[in-house]
Amino acid sequence: MAGFVMQSLGCEVAALNTVNFSNHLGYGQAKGRKTPASEVTDMYQGLKDSHLDDFNMMLSGYLPGAEVVEAVAIMARELKYKATMKPGSFFWILDPVMGDNGRLYVAEDVVPAYKNMIKDADLILPNQFEAEYGRYPYLRVILLTFYRTLSGVKITDMDSLKQAITTLHETYRIPHIIVTSIPSLAGPGAEPSLSVVGSTITSNGKPRIFGIKVPQLDCFFSGTGDMFAALMLVRLREAAYNTEGLSETDSWVSADEVEAVDLPLACAAEKVLASMQGVLARTKAKGDLEMEKFYAKDVEVDEKELRLIKSKAYEVRMVRNLDCLMNPEITYKAETV
Amino acid sequence: MAGFVMQSLGCEVAALNTVNFSNHLGYGQAKGRKTPASEVTDMYQGLKDSHLDDFNMMLSGYLPGAEVVEAVAIMARELKYKATMKPGSFFWILDPVMGDNGRLYVAEDVVPAYKNMIKDADLILPNQFEAEYGRYPYLRVILLTFYRTLSGVKITDMDSLKQAITTLHETYRIPHIIVTSIPSLAGPGAEPSLSVVGSTITSNGKPRIFGIKVPQLDCFFSGTGDMFAALMLVRLREAAYNTEGLSETDSWVSADEVEAVDLPLACAAEKVLASMQGVLARTKAKGDLEMEKFYAKDVEVDEKELRLIKSKAYEVRMVRNLDCLMNPEITYKAETV
Predict the structure, then answer these.
(1) CATH topology for the A2-336 domain
(2) Do A22 and B311 lie within an 8 Å CB cutoff?
(3) Which spans are transmembrane here (chains A, B) (predicted)?
C-alpha cells in the first residue's frame, strides 16, 4: 500500500520489508515471516555499500518487535546525522503502527522502544482509531496507553488530546504531530464523522492545532493507516517545497506567524483526506455490490468465513483509482481547533 | 519493477517475493536473502487459506534455486487445474530469469528444473540478451544453452532461432514464445538495433513468427527484463480481450487464419516496446547528464566504484514516466520474419 502510493506519485522508493506476509492481518490469519532485526540492518548496509542511502525522506511503518524498532532508530539517526549540514534535506515520518482491527500486531516491548526513538522523528502519525473505535475497545486502549505513556496525559476527549499534543511538543520537541480518525460525537440526526487533528510546533515549543472533519464511511478498511502515511509523505514535501525556503529549514517548521490552518501540514492533510475519501467511497460502493451478490446466494457461512469474504470485498481499490491520488478534490478544509 | 508496472496499469498484484535484496544485482553486490522454497509454498498456502488465490494471471520471474522453481511449478499447475472448467481464465507467463549483466543469478540446477515446468506455461519470455550481448559472452552462452537444452537446436542466427521456436512449439506445445533483444547485424552506417521475435502456435503446432525491430540504446539498464514481462502481461490480456471470444479459449491462441503480424502477441509487443523505448530513452538522457556531472568533477575512482555510480545513474526512471506506460505511442510495427 505505502510503496505503491508513493511510487505512483513520483517517489523512487527503496522498500525495506519488515515483514513478508501472504496478506494483511484484516483477514485474521496470514502466512509468512517477520524480518529479523539483523536482516533489516543488513539490507540497510547493502544500500550504503552501493551508495543507495541518499534518501530525502523515510517512512517507518509496521515494526514487529522492539529489536527492529531499535534497528530502524539507528538507521534514522544515521540518515539524520548525514543531513546535519543540509537542514531540511532529510525528513522522517514515524507511523507507530501497533495494532489494527482489534489486534495488537506488535510485541508488548515495542511501545517503550518507540518511546526512545520518538524524539528523533520529524512527524509522528499515531495509528488511526478508524471505524473500529468503539467497536474494538482494546485497540483504543493500546493507542491511548501509547499517548498516555508518552505524554503522561490521560486522553478522554478533545481537550485532553490537545493537552497531550502540547506535552508531546514540549517534552519531546516533536515538530509535527497528526492524530487520525478521531470519532466526532454526532448530534441527533447528524451524519457520523471522523476528525484528523494535527499540529506543528512553534519556535517556543507551543502547538498550533488544526482539525479536519470528514464523513465517516460505515465500513472497515485495512491499510488506510499506511495509505494516510504515504500520502502525507508526498503531500507534506510538496507543501514544504511550495513555501519559499521552508524545505531548507530543519524539520520544515513554519515561521511562528503562520496560523494553524495555513500550515503545510494542514494543507497536506486536506489533500490526503480528499484522496482517501475518493478511494474509500469507491471501495465501499464496489464492496457493497460484492457483498450484495454474496448475500443473494444465501449460503450459510461461519463468522471466520464471513470475515474473509468481507475483508476481500472491501480491499481498498487503489490501483484502479489513481486519479483520486493524483488529482484530489479538496472538499474538507482545516479549521482551528 | 514488475509489481509497480502491473499495478500502475490497473492490476491488483499479490507479490510473492522470491528474494529480498537491498538492490538489484547490476551493482555487482547486494545484501539480503533468497526466500526458501518452503516459505514460498507457505505464502501461497496463506493466500489459499483466505481465498486470495483467484488469480487471472501469473508472472513468474527470478526463482533463485531449483526447489523454488519446483514450488512455483506446483502453484502454477494448481492454478491452471482450478481454471480447467473456465478456459482462458488463468494465464501463466514464465520468464526464465537466469542471469543478467554477465552473471548467473541462479543455481546450475535451475535450468533442468525449468525444463520440467515449461510445458505448462502459456507464454515463455526468455531473458533478454540486451546491451550485454557480445559484451558478456558468458550470458549469451547460458541463454543459448537454455534454448539448446530445450529445443536441441544450436542457435547461431535468425534461421536457427526460428528453428528453435518451431521445435519449442512442436515438442512442448508452448502456445506463445517471445525472445527479446536479439541484436541485428547492422550494415555499414546503419544504426544498431535490437529485435524481438515472437510466435503463437497454430492448431497443428506450427509457428507464426513475427519480429519487431527497435533502435538500440547504447547503454546498460537493469530491470528491463522484468519491465518487458510485466508490460506483456498487461498488454497481452488487453489484446486478448479486444478479440471477441479469444479470452475464453485455452491459452488465448488465435484462430489459424490470423497472420503473425496481427496476433494479439504482436500487438501487445508493439505497445510494450513503445513504452519501453519511451522510458529508456528518458532514462538514458538523465543518466548521461548525471555521468557528465560526475566526469566533470574529475575524481579518480576504481572500476568497482565506477560500476556503482553508473548503475545508479542509469536506474530505470519508471515512476516519473508513467505516461509512457499508460499511453505508448507505437512507432515500431511487427513484421513477418
Answers:
(1) UDP-N-acetylmuramoyl-L-alanine:D-glutamate ligase (3.40.1190)
(2) no
(3) none
Establish if B8 touches chain A: CB-CB under 8 angstroms.
yes
**How confident is the model over B269-311, as pLDDT tens digits?**
999 999 999 999 999 999 999 999 999 999 999 999 999 999 9
Q: How far is CA A198 from the centre of its chain?
A: 12
Burial class (CB in 10 A: 0-12, 13-18, 19+), B14: middle
Which residues in chain A (292-311) have CB-CB distances under 8 A to chain B? 308-309, 311
Please choose, from the candidates B137, B138, B114, the residue with its C-alpha nearest in 3D space to the C-alpha of residue B126: B114
pLDDT higher than 70, residue A326? yes
For the stretch B66-107, pLDDT in tens is 999 999 999 999 999 999 999 999 999 998 877 655 556 677
Residues of chain B contacting residue A30, judged by C-beta atoms under 8 Å apart: 46, 50
| In contact, A136 and A129? CB cutoff 8 Å | no
Q: Report CB contact under 8 Å: B20, A21.
A: no
Domain ranges of chain A: 2-336
The upper half-sphere exposure of residue B13, i.e. CA atoms within 13 Å in the direction of its Cβ, equals 23
Nearest CA-CA distance, residue B319 and chain A, Å: 5
State the amino acid at position A30 in one-letter form. A
pLDDT in tens, A1-40: 999 999 999 999 999 999 999 999 889 999 999 999 999 9
Cα separation, B249 vs B90, whole angstroms: 10
- Is there a contact between B51 and A17 if contact means CB atoms under 8 Å apart? no
Interchain CB distance below 8 Å, A46 and B33: no
Residue of A nearest to B44 (CA): A22
* Higher-scoring residue by pLDDT: B336, B114: B336
* Chain B residues touching A46 at Cβ < 8 A: 21-23, 29-32
Residues of A in contact with B12 (CB under 8 A): 315, 319
Helices (H) and strands (E) in chain A, counts: 10, 11
Q: Contact A50/B29, CB-based, under 8 Å?
A: yes
Note whether B43 and B14 are within 8 A (CB): no
**Range A229-252 burial, b when 16+ CB lie within 10 A, else e:** bbbbbbbbbbbbeebeebbeeebb
User: What ipTM does the predicted assembly reach?
Assistant: 0.90
